[in-house]
Amino acid sequence: MVTTAFGAHPLNGPGPLFLLLLALVIDAVLGDWIGRVLPDPAALSRRFCAWADRRLNRVERGKTARLLRGALVVLALLVMALAAGLLVDRIGAVGRGWVLELVVILATLRGRASWMRVRAVRRALEKGGAAAAQDAILPLTRRHAFSLDEHGIARAAVEGAAKAFARKLVAPVFGYALLGAPGLLVWAAVDGADSALGNPGVRHERFGLTAARLDDALNAIPARLAALLLALAAPFVGANLGGALRTMVRDGGKSASFNMGWPTAAVAGALGLALAGPHRDGGVVITEPWIGDGRARATPADIGRALALTAVAALILVLLVALLLWGVAGV
User: Fold this and answer.
1) 2 inside domain
2) Residues whose CB falls within 8 Å of the CB of residue 301, separated by 6 or more in sequence, listed in order
3) Tally of domains in the chain
4) Does residue 285 surpass a pLDDT of 90?
5) What distance in Å separates the CA atoms of residue 52 and residue 70, rounded to the nearest whole number?
């Protein structure tokens, strides 16, 4: 067994866990600044998929042809991500190569950056109401932001906080802890592909199907782990642990998303809110079930409570990584 703090693989000792713990601490303090300096692998994947979408996803092609082309785009991404991850692993095992691995982890974690985007929505609502917050909510929801009123924006921000905690913090931590840099970069590639191609609608119904299904598979465990962490954080911010657990079990599967209903339900139950639900997309009403049985008239104060909840849940995640590191180091 490797006993150095900078081993090359999680099965070899505490090295990668130490790097992960260090990256989580750095992200918690400087993540919004780091997000402006380091390229996001998921964003690079998203750009590649957007380019491929323009070139390969032609409406005149048949459904099978579009499905195969979309699958080939995802396969190419996976090969590139896996190759890059193995290279990072190889470099990280030599001398000061661990610095590169730390940088890759920091580039992929977007916990604080996402948290700050949600906070920006709250501040915009408090200062200027719905009109001022519509631009701020755009990165956090796939809904038609300019059809949302103040309560709709607040609900979307609370949902965005829950989903970002699952997708931008718990999922990459899980991928790296399980499979090191290759697992981390494969997750980031799929996350970007789903963001670019997994949108509902005729255009991506076939071309984006592989990206959407693979994203569902990779996030199945992290999303449910994130929901549990959010529920466990509830008592520390004066929220309802029992409500979070009940709503998570009852409503976690109601969302159109295979995974994101779970963290959304945990936050809804903890804060006594009703999230998701029917909404307008332009002039069309999209009927979706409510998640949670509390208030639908969410406010900026509820966004603040959601931010506190996700912050404590992130701290619990850090403590879990620290305990895992301590356990592995003590073997």
Assistant:
1) no
2) none
3) 1
4) no
5) 8
278 within some domain: yes
The predicted model gives 291-313 an average pLDDT of: 95
- Sign of the C-alpha dihedral, residues 122, 123, 127, 133? negative
Q: State the Cα–Cα distance between residues 9 and 154, nearest whole angstrom.
A: 42
Residue 235 in domain: yes
| pTM of the predicted protein model | 0.90
Give, in degrees to the nearest 5, the angle at Cα 113 between 174 and 39.
80
Please report where in the chains the tokens 């948290």 appear, as a residue. 115
Kindly report, residue by residue over 157-207, the tens digit of the pLDDT. Answer: 999 999 999 999 999 999 999 999 999 999 999 999 999 998 777 788 899
CA distances 7 to 87, 245, 260, Å, are 15, 37, 33
Range of the structural domain that residue 100 is part of: 10-329
Question: Torsions phi, psi of 89, nearest 5?
Answer: -60, -45
Q: Crossing angle, helix 41-56 and helix 63-92, to 10 degrees?
A: 150
Sequence-distant contacts of 121-124: CB under 8 A, at least 24 apart: 121/153, 121/154, 121/157, 121/160, 121/303, 122/157, 122/300, 122/303, 122/304, 122/307
Cα separation of 141 and 302, whole Å?
Answer: 17
pLDDT, tens only, 194-218: 999 987 777 888 999 999 999 999 9
Backbone angles phi, psi at 279, to 5 degrees: -155, 160
User: Please, are residues 115 and 168 in contact by the beta-carbon 8 Å criterion?
Assistant: no
Closest CA to 100 of 116, 88, 82, 114: 88
pLDDT value at 129 more than 90: no
What is the number of other CB atoms lying within 10 angstroms of the CB of residue 9?
A: 16
290 phi-psi bin (left φ>0, alpha ψ -120 to 50, beta other): beta
Within a domain: 142: yes
Query: Once rounded to an integer, what is the mean pLDDT over residues 217-230?
Result: 96
Closest of 220, 5, 211, 37 to residue 113, by C-alpha: 37
